[in-house]
Amino acid sequence: MEQLNAYLEANKERFLNELIDLLKIPSVSADENFSNDVLRAAEVVKQRLLEAGVDQAEVCPTKGYPVVYAEKIIDAALPTVLVYGHYDVQPADPYELWDSPPFEPVVKNGDLYARGSCDDKGQMYMHVKAFEMMMKNNALPCNVKFMIEGEEEVGSVNLETYAIENKDRLKADVVLISDTSMIANDAPSITTGLRGLTYLEVEVTGPNRDLHSGVYGGAVANPINILCDMISSLHDADRRVTIPGFYEAVEEVSKEERDQMARAPFNLDEYQRHLEIKEVMGEKGYTTLERTSIRPTLDVNGIWGGYIGKGAKTVLPSKAYAKISMRLVPNQKSEAILHLFTKHFNAIATPSVTVKVRPHHGGEAAVTPTDSIAYKAASKAMEATFGKTPIPLRTGGSIPIVTMFEKVLGVKSVLLGFGLDSDAIHSPNEKFGLFNYYKGIETIPYFYRYFTEMSKG
Ligand code: BES
Ligand code: MN
Ligand code: MN
What we know:
Elements: H1 2-23, H2 35-52, E1 56-60, E2 67-72, E3 80-86, E4 106-108, E5 111-113, H3 121-136, E6 143-149, H4 159-165, E7 174-177, E8 181-182, E9 189-194, E10 196-205, H5 223-232, H6 255-263, H7 268-275, H8 288-291, E11 297-305, E12 319-328, H9 334-348, E13 354-363, E14 366-367, H10 373-386, E15 391-394, H11 401-409, E16 413-415, E17 419-420, E18 431-433, H12 434-456
Parallel strand pairs: 3-6, 3-7, 7-16, 8-17, 9-15
Antiparallel strand pairs: 1-2, 2-6, 4-5, 5-18, 9-14, 10-12, 10-13, 11-12
The protein binds ligand BES and manganese (II) ion (MN) (2 copies).
């Protein structure tokens, strides 16, 4: 491992510059104006994997953006690690809120600022560089496969088909993913649970056209007013979701796990200060960490309708819209929750309006084991490089492919993330600490080594 550290030290600058080049490509999967850039990013990832030393790499077409697949098989009798990551990024809007342009990466105070720096190009590229290090130093202890996709930020809709069609090729003993965060740089953690998701859009229609708000106002239902009423009725005074059956499948977490969560370092004052809020708000009876990990939620992500241009226009709009997401916990099924929502939303609509519910994407929650060889190897690897045993912790975000891989490939994942919640993923000024980037590159080879050793028994 000393040799690897020396190699990392000697190549730090190049490792950073290569990531910067990748971050310059605006591979925004949600916006078709960037489709050439998304495709270009796939080619670059393939090329970099080849340079790092894989036997073969391929840009595999799907109905959407391609999957980059690569492998290095040294001995069929040895364990195989399947690395998953994504090369697509979230839209950078609103651009004016960035201190520097999102696709012109800059390093400031030890942090690399760019869209995708943490989610997930930076974290994905740690694996490419860790692999290069092992290859160049004759230190690769097992087989590796890479599966880097380009549609994670739009729901990975074509990945299940790809996995089914490539089941043999993707055969592995563990899926290794760096697409989550840790508690802090001096408090490493490993993610052991992710929430599921149901994402949908609602449309509320009142009169057949926009009306004069003076001539008709007071007598005709205003769909924006109605939508607001409907939305606010979706939570009760205890901030619980009021949709009948919403909590039915929810698995109550054991007292033991809740006690363990309560011991994780978390400073509520600091949390509030960071967000410039005076007080947090959420479901009664649960702590902030619990509210964002083991409890399901409902949030409006966007709401619009009527006149939002300059000045004032007196109008009673015909339509109102909202985008709504529900974060789900184990046992809640994304489809089932969509149906419960749809039924309830129709039931609470007044006869003065009509409503439509349009599903977007969804995904299932995941819990990953802590008693597996893979978890133990990841824990030991972090211990080796951080000097501290990482804390197992569930998180609030979603990576729907974790459950899908388990279902289709029969392989469980390890969520070895190196980001921080303060990295502002999906927000303006996304960043990734250079400390975190290099720490990830340093830690990953330990995982390979311990995983291989422990697999041999
Ligand atoms: N990397 C994130 C998920 C994440 C972030 C997990 C931080 C844990 C901590 C991923 O790229 C993401 O943004 N997922 C989406 C879901 C997807 C279906 C669009 C999400 O969580 O909103
Ligand atoms: Mn991600
Ligand atoms: Mn993301």
